[in-house]
Every structure is written in structure tokens, then in C-alpha cells.
Amino acid sequence: MQVDVYRTEEEQVAAIKKWLKENGSQYLIVIGLGMSILFGYQWWQGEQQTTGEAASGIYGEMMQAAQLVSPTEDEAGENLSTARHLAKQLMDQYEGSHYASYAGLMLAKLAVQENDLETAEQQLRWVLEQSADKPLMLTATMRLARVLAAKGSPEQGLTLIKAAVPAAWQASYDEVRGDLHLQMGKTDEARQAYQRSVDAATAKKDGRANPIVQMKLDDLSV
């Protein structure tokens, strides 16, 4: 509707009335949809904030239970049971969130400590399926490679981490590659991987090689 083409105010008013009569319902529908989207988005933002706060609270309780040092085995077992319960709650109720992914990583760590490698593998694969966060996926992938190696399948672990990774992760990944090559009896490949790890670490600003990796490299250089 181009109101400016009309010469008189009366003509403009008449044109507006005619346009509203012919198009008013569609116009109001568009406005209504726009307002619905606006208020819907505002509701979603509020819901996200509320959900995030709730998940954050559960995550904090989970970490406190997992890290609490208990004087007796009974209390330690109770704390671990609480941590597992809260972790599963996060994974069930907040699937797809960072909190759920971190809960999966924690459950995998607890499983490794108990030598339950099957459960550890399941938890890490769950994280990889659920998370789209690059650092989380890199962490889970590296840990899964170690779990597979601990289960007697270093070849699978190496296949899992053969792809190139960001520079910030290079040193850590090459250390794992070195460990897996060494487990397979490939000392030359292990030495090369450890050297790459040392080089990647020292290439960073004020960077220093992990002394453990340096020790592994020195042992193979004798």
C-alpha cells in the first residue's frame, strides 16, 4: 500500500480503511505470529536459564560427592553412589547439555578406577554420540582410545585418534599415540610420537614438555 500517491488526507484515510478491510485479518495474523515468536523466544530464554541453573546445581552436587574424601570406605561408597545417581539424572533429564556430557565423562572415569572397562567404553561412546562440543569430543575420544588399549585393542585406539587435531591438543594426542605404539611393541613409532609430543608442547609460548613424556622419550633413546 503506497499512501504517498494520494493527494488529499481524505483520500489517504479512505485508502487505509479500504486496505485494512481487505487485508486487515492477514495483517493481524502476521502481527500475532510475530508476537507469538517474540514471546515464545523470551519464554524459551527464561526456560533455558532455569534449566541451566537446575542442571548446574545438580552438577555441583555431583562433583562434590565425587571429590569428597571420606574417612571410611562406607562413606566413600555412599558418596560415589550419590555421584552416580546425580550423573545419571543429568544424563537422563538434560541430555544434549554440557552438564550431561561431563557427567558421562565422570562416570567413565569412575568405571576405569574400578577396572570396569566395558562401562567406561559405553559412557565415553555415549558422550561422543550426544555432544557437539569440540573440546568435549576430543577429550572423550582420547580417553576412549586409552580404554580400548586397556581392553587389549591398541590398534582400535590408534585408529580412533589417527585424525589430525588442533595444535592445542597435539601434545596430548601424540603422547597417547606413543603409549599405544609402545604397547604394540613398535618402539620406533612410539619414539617418534613422543618426540612430536615434546615438540608440540615446547612450541607453545612459554611451553615446556610434560616431564613424564620426556622421560618416556629418554627411556626409548637409551
- The count of DSSP E runs of length 2 or more, i.e. the number of strands, is 0
Mean pLDDT figure: 78
Low-confidence stretches: 1-7, 27-45
Choose one word for the global shape: globular
Largest sheet: none
- Helix/strand class: mainly alpha
Please compute the radius of gyration using only Cα atoms.
Answer: 29 Å
Percent range for β-strand residues: under 5%
Number of helices: 9
Helix content: over 70%
Question: What can be said about this structure in brief?
Answer:
The protein has nine helices and no strands. It has helices spanning 9-67, 73-93, 98-113, 117-130, 134-150, 154-160, 167-183, 187-202, 211-221.
Describe the protein's architecture and organization.
The protein is mainly α and 222 residues long. Among the domains are: 58-153, no CATH class; 164-222, Methane Monooxygenase Hydroxylase, Chain G, domain 1 (Up-down Bundle). It is 80% helix and 0% strand. It is built from nine helices and no strands. The chain has helices at 9-67, 73-93, 98-113, 117-130, 134-150, 154-160, 167-183, 187-202, 211-221. Helix 2 packs antiparallel against helix 3 (98-113) and helix 3 (98-113) packs antiparallel against helix 4. The chain starts with 8 loop residues before the first helix and ends with a helix. The model is unreliable at 1-7 and 27-45 (pLDDT under 50).
Provide tags for this entry.
Methane Monooxygenase Hydroxylase, Chain G, domain 1, mainly alpha, 222 residues, disordered N terminus
